[in-house]
């Protein structure tokens, strides 16, 4: 439809002529009598084209429907994506408190109970997500400590105060 409309405008440039923008009388005062007759003819053609605009649209629509199939209409409602929610674990708040006591100062920890994970955010801009729903709380706590100290040390130069992070276990 768009291509047909553009082609019509290119074939009939007078169709875009609007007498409201520049009044015909103003144009007639600035031109010679020969040019005035040409302008007058252009305005008459524009009036005829404006009258046939509705008919032209119907003809274009019929020719488009003749050569192109319309898109099928979707009648079924869009299905909602399945939502996964982590099972509630009563030990998670205690594990989060233990982690907050043992992680470095440049690290902030966010608990996401809906997805069953912790978000580790460093002041340097690096971040990591550790899911306890996949690993279990004990392994997830160890992994959070490991990643948090590995993010903190290059950012601040401060070494881990524990001899071995792997020896630290959440009960």
Secondary structure layout plus pairing:
Elements: H1 2-11, H2 24-30, H3 33-51, H4 53-67, H5 92-102, E1 107-112, E2 117-122, E3 127-131, H6 132-135, H7 137-156
Antiparallel strand pairs: 1-2, 2-3
Helix pairs in contact: 5-7
Account of the 3D structure:
There is one protein chain. The protein has helices at residues 2-11, 24-30, 33-51, 53-67, 92-102, 132-135, 137-156; strands at residues 107-112, 117-122, 127-131. The protein has 171 residues and is mainly alpha-helical. Helix 5 (92-102) packs parallel to helix 7. It has two domains: 2-67, no CATH class; 92-167. Strand 2 (117-122) and strand 3 (127-131) form a beta hairpin. The chain has seven helices and three strands, in the order αααααβββαα. The protein is elongated and about 100 Å long. It has a three-stranded antiparallel beta sheet.
Radius of gyration: 37 Å
* Helix and strand composition category: mainly alpha
Number of helices: 7
Strand order of the largest sheet: 1-2-3
Strand content: 5-15%
What is the element string, with H for helices and E for strands?
A: HHHHHEEEHH
Q: Can you tell me the overall shape? A: elongated
Biggest sheet layout: 3 strands, antiparallel
Distance between the terminal alpha carbons, to the nearest Å? 70 Å
pLDDT < 50 runs, ≥5 residues: none
Number of strands: 3
Total count of domains: 2
Average pLDDT, all residues: 79
Helix content: 40-55%
């Amino acid at each position: 439809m768009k291509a047909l409309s553009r082609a019509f405008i290119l074939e009939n440039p007078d169709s875009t002529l609007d007498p409201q923008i520049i009044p015909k009388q103003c144009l007639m005062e600035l031109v010679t009598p020969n040019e005035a007759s040409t302008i007058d003819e252009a305005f008459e053609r524009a009036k005829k084209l404006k009258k046939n605009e509705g008919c032209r649209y119907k003809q274009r629509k019929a020719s488009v429907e003749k050569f192109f199939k319309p898109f099928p209409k979707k009648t079924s409602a869009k299905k909602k994506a399945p939502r996964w929610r982590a099972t509630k674990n009563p030990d998670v708040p205690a594990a989060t408190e233990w982690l907050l006591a043992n992680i470095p100062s440049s690290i902030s920890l966010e608990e996401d109970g809906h997805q069953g994970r912790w978000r580790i955010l460093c002041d340097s801009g690096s971040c990591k997500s550790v899911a306890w729903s996949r690993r279990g709380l004990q392994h997830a706590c160890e992994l959070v400590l490991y990643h948090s100290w590995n993010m903190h040390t290059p950012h601040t130069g401060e070494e881990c105060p524990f001899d071995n992070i792997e020896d630290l276990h959440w009960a």
